[in-house]
Write a structure and sequence with these properties.
The complex is a heterodimer of chains A (226) and B (283).
Chain A: E1 2-14, E2 17-30, E3 34-38, H1 45-52, E4 60-65, E5 68-69, H2 75-81, E6 82-85, H3 96-101, H4 117-126, H5 143-156, E7 161-165, H6 173-188, E8 192-197, E9 207-212, E10 215-219
Parallel strand pairs in A: 3-8, 3-9, 6-7, 7-8
Antiparallel strand pairs in A: 1-2, 1-4, 4-5, 9-10
Helix pairs in contact in A: 5-6
Chain B: H1 11-30, H2 36-63, H3 66-87, H4 95-118, H5 127-158, H6 160-168, H7 173-198, H8 206-213, H9 218-247
Helix pairs in contact in B: 1-2, 3-4, 3-5, 4-5, 4-9, 5-7, 5-9, 6-7, 7-9, 8-9
The chains are: A alpha/beta (226), B mainly alpha (283).
């Protein structure tokens, strides 16, 4: 599958006049690709992800998924295919299992079979949460554990594309490595992912972009070449 | 007519009652409470509004036209919707229509159910019965709706991140808003339920007080009050459920995006981008 953004533009009122938060941003991505977007804070990285998930009002430009323009996709269906993981891990009150199964309680996935307890246990183990019971209340998770549960929730739902906003920003090295592994596995299995990162990129990215003042430019990979 | 038993209050006696407020004002002046202006305005408003009400009702009672009664309830409902809107400056403007509609529907149904089926007023539009009952029904459902709407928009705001996370997983606005809708309806229902529980023990409700003052038999007044209390509570619950269900969607765009604080009001989007609800992908 192919996800294309063409000339995404968002103009907002700033203190001294209109500001182009997104200034004609184009980005295409196919399954099996991991793309990093780096840049200073306030450059529009998170805004770009919101726009691509169709979670931002007032954006102009074109979005296409699988060759079909966004308006041919019902918004809920679009978002199950192009799923954003917000920077701040946001879980709903309840247990870990409640959260992991949340996508299947929504109308858009009502016809799909939710993952079995065995699948949930394996998934938890895969991100180093083997000691966390699915019955644990999410209020009793650390920030790093919450971030991994939030990531698992989107991974289990198997979107075509994942938009990850600083997925490892608030994590210790070990948790961050687990998150990276899980994302790399998702990409290896055919998913496409955009990772917004504050500064660093790493060797897993197949392409790397730099965002500055609402503009996106392709940057050299960390290892020096394409 | 029941008002045979009402002791008439002369203008002199009215002035005497005003004297007590003047006393309170004097006290405020003495203690430097800074309330004199507020007390004065409130007192003048009480005089003007209630006397105006008296004259308007006299006119309406004297003419007894069905359309006058209906018009009166309609105006009352619109005013109530204005009050709801002014109490919730942060809420989307669309709540005016949804709360007016909810109050009008529940107000008319409940009022005419009471006057037509319980009190069996003849003719059905008899203003002496219909207007005071409609006033209680609409007034109470206004309180319930205002509370429920205020709670819902505040709760959505608190849950903005959760709402966004739910939408990102493919939730519809209804699914993302559901916890806030539930807590709003509960918030609107609590005063009704607690006043139903406390009635007669902690306070004698206004209508019953009025009937007793007018010389009615207390047990008869109780029966009236039970009917009114139940109907008013029902109107309040139905009204707030309906208003909340009709209003939450105003916080979302047509694409189902939750409008966070920075995205409300066209003034903040110089390109008028907000008007183009279709958002990305439509140009």
């Amino acid at each position: 599958m192919l996800l294309e953004s063409l000339g995404l533009t968002l103009v907002r009122a700033g203190d001294t006049g209109p500001v182009r938060v997104l200034d004609g941003v184009s980005l295409a991505l196919s399954g099996g690709e991991l793309v990093d977007v780096v840049g200073p804070s306030g450059s529009g990285k998170s805004t770009l992800l919101l726009a691509m998930a169709r979670l931002l009002p007032g954006v102009r430009g074109q979005l296409r998924l699988d060759g079909r323009p966004a308006e041919e996709w019902p918004p809920t269906r679009w978002r199950t295919n192009v799923t954003l993981l917000p920077q701040k891990p946001t879980l709903v009150p309840g247990t870990v299992a409640d959260n992991l199964l949340l996508p299947w309680r929504l109308k858009v996935r009502a016809a799909e079979e939710p993952p079995t307890p065995g699948v949930l246990a394996d998934a938890l183990a895969s991100v180093g949460l083997d000691d966390v019971s699915p019955a644990r209340d999410v209020a009793r998770l650390s920030v790093g554990q919450q971030a991994r549960v939030a990531l698992l929730r989107v991974l289990l739902a198997r979107p075509e594309f994942l938009l990850l906003d600083e997925p490892d920003a608030a994590l210790d090295n070990d948790s961050a490595a687990r998150v990276t592994d899980a994302v790399v596995r998702f990409v290896r299995e055919g998913g496409g992912a955009v990772r917004v990162r504050h500064l660093r990129s790493d060797e897993h990215a197949s392409r790397r972009y730099r965002m500055e003042a609402g503009r996106l430019a392709e940057a050299a990979l960390a290892n020096g070449g394409e | 007519m029941a008002n045979a038993g009402v002791v008439d209050i002369g203008w002199l006696e009215l002035l005497l009652a005003t004297g007590f407020v003047v006393l309170a004002g004097g006290l405020s002046l003495l203690l430097d409470l800074g309330l004199v202006k507020d007390i004065t305005i409130a007192t003048v408003r009480t005089y003007v509004q209630l006397l105006a009400l008296g004259f308007v009702l006299t006119f309406v009672f004297a003419h007894q036209r069905w359309w006058l009664t209906v018009l009166y309830i309609f105006v009352m409902t619109v005013m109530a919707a204005w009050i709801i809107l002014s109490r919730a400056p942060d809420a989307p403007k669309g709540i005016f229509a949804s709360s007016a509609f909810s109050m009008a529907l529940t107000g008319f149904i409940v009022t005419f159910a009471v006057t037509g089926l319980v009190v069996r007023v003849q003719p059905w539009y008899r203003a002496q019965y219909v207007i005071p009952i409609a006033g209680m029904v609409v007034g109470n459902s206004m309180t319930g709706i205002a509370l429920a709407l205020e709670r819902m928009f505040a709760d959505l705001e608190l849950r903005a991140e959760e709402v966004r996370a739910l939408l990102a997983l493919g939730a519809t606005p209804a699914e993302a808003a559901r916890p806030s809708v539930r807590s709003a309806v509960r918030a609107g229902a609590i005063p009704t339920i607690s006043s139903m529980a406390a009635v007669g023990i902690v306070f004698i409700p206004g209508m019953m007080t009025g009937q007793i003052l007018a010389g009615a038999d207390p047990v008869r007044a109780s029966k009236y009050q039970i009917v009114v209390m139940l109907m008013v509570s029902a109107a309040e619950l139905l009204g707030s459920v309906m208003a909340v269900l009709l209003s939450y969607r105003h916080r979302f765009t047509a694409e189902g995006v939750y409008l966070e604080r920075g995205f409300r009001g066209d003034a903040e989007v110089p390109d008028g981008g907000l008007r183009r609800h279709r958002g990305a992908g439509s140009s």
